[in-house]
Write a structure and sequence with these properties.
Largest sheet: 7 strands, antiparallel
Helix content: 40-55%
Structural class: alpha+beta
Radius of gyration: 41 Å
Order of helices and strands: HEEEEHHEEEH
Number of strands: 7
Strand content: 15-25%
Length: 204
């Protein structure tokens, strides 16, 4: 059987995050892999609440929801991507609800110990910083590509316009010049003169 880390990674659930606003607070909800456990966590910036899910617990949670483990993880992923998550602080724990209605997935997160809190905050801080730098780099690259395409379009438009002007000039130069007709010359056959009507002999 694959390790829990591989199963969660295959489901693309190992590094999810979403910001959830409540009436009184905001929570950064996130996932991570720790050892051979899948961690669901939430933080308000200074406190951390979390739960660790191993393979056996994942199977139990999936069975209770009448889902396969793959579908269970897929539902968690969709909830984070769509920010379809609710977080509420109740006493010393946070209830994390993913999805809506009777098919929603509910997890109870408990306050982390000091060492876990430091580890989690360090992990999510650098993850978000790296993700931000990566997005900025992609955006800068996309802007450069767009600028290059616009320049190509301008160059192409100027080239097409110049070619059209040159083509028109060439066509004008190729047109035969109309020579002025000399008196008495035939318009149909310029080499021959027009025949004059015959007149009888005139006697004075």
């Amino acid at each position: 059987m694959s390790s829990m880390k591989t199963i969660v990674a295959d489901a693309k659930c190992q590094e999810l995050h979403a910001v959830i606003k409540t009436a009184s607070d905001k929570y950064l909800c996130y996932t991570r892999i720790e050892g051979n456990c899948f961690v669901l966590a939430a933080s308000n910036g200074y406190d951390v609440w979390r739960t660790e899910i191993d393979w056996e617990e994942l199977k139990t949670l999936a069975d209770l929801s009448d889902l396969s483990t793959d579908k269970y993880l897929e539902k968690i992923r969709n909830g984070f991507l769509q920010a379809d998550i609710q977080a509420s602080l109740i006493g010393a724990k946070v209830n994390l609800v993913i999805g809506q209605g009777v098919k929603a997935l509910t997890h109870e997160l408990y306050e982390a110990k000091l060492a876990q809190k430091k580890s989690d905050l360090n992990s999510i801080l650098f993850r978000l910083a790296e993700r931000s730098l990566e997005l900025e780099s992609r955006l800068e690259k996309a802007d450069m590509e767009i600028a290059g395409l616009r320049q190509q379009q301008k160059t192409s438009a100027v080239g097409d316009s110049s070619g059209l002007i040159l083509d028109l000039d060439a066509k004008r130069n190729k047109q035969p010049k109309i020579q002025p007709k000399k008196p008495g010359m035939s318009a149909v056959n310029p080499a021959s003169r027009k025949r004059r009507a015959a007149h009888g002999v005139q006697f004075d």
